[in-house]
Amino acid sequence: MPGYTAVMMCRALALCAVLAGCAEDVHEPRSADVDFRDPKSVIGSVFYAAETGHTGHLAALCDPAGGSDEDTRRICAMHPGAPDWKSFRDSFASARLNGEPRVHGDRARLDFLFGPGGRSSETMELVRRDGRWYLLDF
Fold first, then answer.
1. Theoretical Cys-Cys bridge with 115: which of 7, 104, 120, 124, CB 3.0 to 4.6 Å?
2. Which CATH number fits domain 25-137: 3.10.450.50, 3.40.50.300, 2.60.120.380, 3.30.565.10?
3. Partners of 97 in the beta sheet?
């Protein structure tokens, strides 16, 4: 039963990670080429901007219906000359996802670790509009 063996190995690895307190290893696309069909790509592009200083794509990340909160709108307007640039870089340059997105209808919540040493935990909420994910609430 090769399928059974694979399932048992996956369960054993998952249990090991839980018992060891390991964070889940999540594929995190970091790029300015945002795949708006994937909420991980949207938030990964924020981390990419902080890490590289390439911010031209950030303006397209906020909810086009205007629902994004003030903190999220600041992220979408971020650029290297902004007064909050250093804080943005310090917070997000080494940020990483902490688990898979939790999608409920047209809303997704993504947990991530950020800040100095990646020790602070936060959740970003995204909204889906016409099949595309956008930053909504931070």
1. 120
2. 3.10.450.50
3. 112
**Chain-centre distance for alpha carbon 109:** 9
Residue-wise pLDDT tens digits, 53-87? 999 999 999 999 999 999 999 999 999 999 999 99
Q: How many CB atoms lie within 10 A of CB 116?
A: 9
Name the residue type at position 65. Answer: A
Token pair for 90:
């310090």
Structure tokens that stand for 127 in this block: 């909204």
d(CA 104, CA 50): 28
Cα 7 from Cα 2, distance rounded (Å): 9
- The closest alpha carbon to 108, from 131, 128, 82, 94, belongs to 128
